[in-house]
Amino acid sequence: MVFGRSDRRIRPSVTPVALKVLVAGGFGVGKTTLVGAISEIKPLRTEELLTEAGRPVDDTSGVEAKTTTTVAMDFGRITLREDLVLYLFGTPGQDRFWFLWDELAQGALGAVVLADTRRLEDCFAAVDYFERRGIAFTLAVNCFDGAVRYPEEVVRDALDLDPEVPVIMCDARERESVKHVLVSVVEHALAAGITDRRAAAV
Less Cβ crowding at N or C end of the chain, within 10 Å? Predict the structure, then answer.
């Protein structure tokens, strides 16, 4: 103490940077589970029960045990570092709700495209959406129990992904696994942004 004052330096408060990340993929691939596994707040969910009326338009093949579906979005938040907060927006998976995607995509840094190797074709639409709009994304293969595990190269070739797109095996139920995916999205999106700025300057 010097003249009654502490000699410890008071660290200035840090205003965190807030970034928006989308979580997309096919119906029943685990988007709601992923957001719920990582969110530090109680996630907002807009799930409704599947009904007989929806059977003609909701393809439940491969996910017959699924009883609910997201009809608007999932929302969660995770602080990766003291100065970095991610806001997660999970998109609805069915074709009839795709009109919401453009609204959700506004201002997004990047995206996670969640894939199920048992129904890999279900994530084609999400991959195409982000490629067409120039939004950086990481392809995360949700390793369901009992599903065949394919090497990264096989998944990449099957989806015809560009070489720079990260492909990661994950478990959407496990917090650390999801965190690894989100760190990949941020790093890939920032690297893609730097590359784009350099190309524009040439």
Answer: C
pLDDT in tens, 41-97: 998 866 554 444 444 454 555 555 544 554 458 999 999 999 999 999 998 866 656
- Residue-wise pLDDT for 3-20, tens only, equals 455 555 666 677 889 999
Strands 47-49, 167-170: parallel, antiparallel or unpaired by DSSP? Answer: unpaired
Amino acid at 119: R
Amino acid present at 63: V
Residues present in the chain in total:
202
| Location of structure tokens 């989308």 | 22
Rounded CA gap, 113 and 92, in Å?
12
Q: Which residue has the tokens 């199920």?
A: 116
Question: Could you give the CA distance from residue 78 to residue 40 in angstroms, rounded to a whole number?
Answer: 5
